[in-house]
Amino acid sequence: MNVNQAIVKILKSEGIEWISCFPSNQIIEEAAKVDIRPIAFRHERGAGMAADAYSRLSNRQKFGVFVIQDQAGSENAMGAIAQQFADNVPVLVLPRAPSLSHISVRPEFWPSRSYERFAKQTETIIKADQVSSVMRRAFHALRNGRPGPVVVDIPADVGTEEVSESALTYKSPSQMFQVPSPGDIKDAVTALLKSKTPVIWSGMGVLLAQASAELTELAELLEIPVFTSMPGKSGIDERHPLALGAGSSATTLAARSWLQSSDTLLAIGSSLTNTGYAQPIPSGKFVIHNTISQEDINKDHFVDIGLAGDAKLTLKAIIDEVKGQIGENGRRGTTQIPAEIAKIKAQWYEEWMPILTDDSEPINPYRVIWEMDQTLDKGNSVVTHDAGAPRDMMVPFYTSGSPHGYIGWGKTTHLGYGIPLMIGAKMAFPERFCVNFMGDGAFGMSGLDIETSVRAGLPITTIVLNNGHMATYPGGFPVSRAKYGVTEMTGDYAKIAEGMGAVGIHVTKPSEIAPALRQAQKINLDGKTVLLDIKTRAEDKRSASSR
Questions:
Q1: Which of 10, 56, 347, 387 is the most buried (most CB within 10 A)?
Q2: Please, what's the b/e burial string for 175-205 (b: 16 or more CB within 10 A of its CB; e: otherwise)?
Q3: pLDDT in the model for residue 101
Q4: pTM over 0.85
């Protein structure tokens, strides 16, 4: 058995059922021989994005595996890996590397060495008999600590070397769980109970730890409002009376109000990373910070009480301590917080309803989001945004329901992420309606992966806001746009989709949006991919934007 075959044997033992890839890499062929399904994308970046979604939705129980070739293939993959790293997504990356004799000779591209800056862990298999130990370290890193991409590259000549029988000793590493000390939990609860206006900041760690029920229980127990970060969106049902909504650089009025006025911030399952694509944390807060990674505590913000550990176990410990201090019922039904949230939400919707229900043509993109919000089955859908304006429009106004019903991504923000992301989501949740909301600029980055969806039999729906422009942020490129049309673009995206075997649907009137969504879902159920080409206008207005 050679190195490539041994790696595939280990993948099989770890329950890997498919790999996203772009040839050429011998692992693709060896995987197919043992019934691990390879799905080839139209670009390496798309393959990495699909692996990202699969890992996000699998809660560290299964992992996306991303297989690519050396040289240009590995170079093309960097954007996807950088996004995985920024968003803390555990993906196994298996690039082919140049032969050992040339691996460090210019202009050879050494993947693991080049990826070191934006991967959780990188390693090269130098000798055949290293396979078991290297792969054990890789899966340990995937399961434990701060999530992130783990890179194991295989030099072309090493991949064909035989592994000795004595070296085939792979044993799967287990997932380990950490919980904060009882003293720190007690201090955190004491501070929460003394606080006059606490707020919970919920991150993606809540989703990965499958801790939505515990998050909701704590919020109800103390009647504390809950804000979710963009990656953490869907960690709580946003229809809940204590849910403030989610935020990118744009957010709901309720979220902005509570984040600004709160005296105590309880962050659960969040890195609390400062980024232009997240809500700022105003100064002067008493900060209680739970994260799986100690390195994130006191990184961007001073933390008064650090709670390093698994989000689910931490929440359970906090709940038990609250009940121990103030009783089983906590503060349920004793505050006006739900009524205050309802009041400010009503105020916010009163301002925005003329925009959300706008009947004018070309269609206001917010009307598209409104129709999605009213039409989709929240418990049976997975929705995502693409980069730019679609993100900041979508995050505040699409109401997420069940965990992983929304994929919020983008601490770094790669245009075109949404289509391959939804293909990976369909692999994880084949029974759900998987919908991507993107602009026409983003379509140019990944539109050909509509064909991947068709070929792979993974039917998704993509909504393209066809407004003929990119970069619709306020004030973007006014002179170059006026003189040279630098941000103008055109296309019949429905027709393009049909040319790739999908169903294209043109939408030009607001009244057509909801019927088109229902039609798309039916077509997806019949096994066909759909693209909704919606003729929209540019819209610069954002809700409670930090920009």
A1: 56
A2: eeeebbeeebbbbbbebbbebeebbbbbbbb
A3: 87
A4: yes
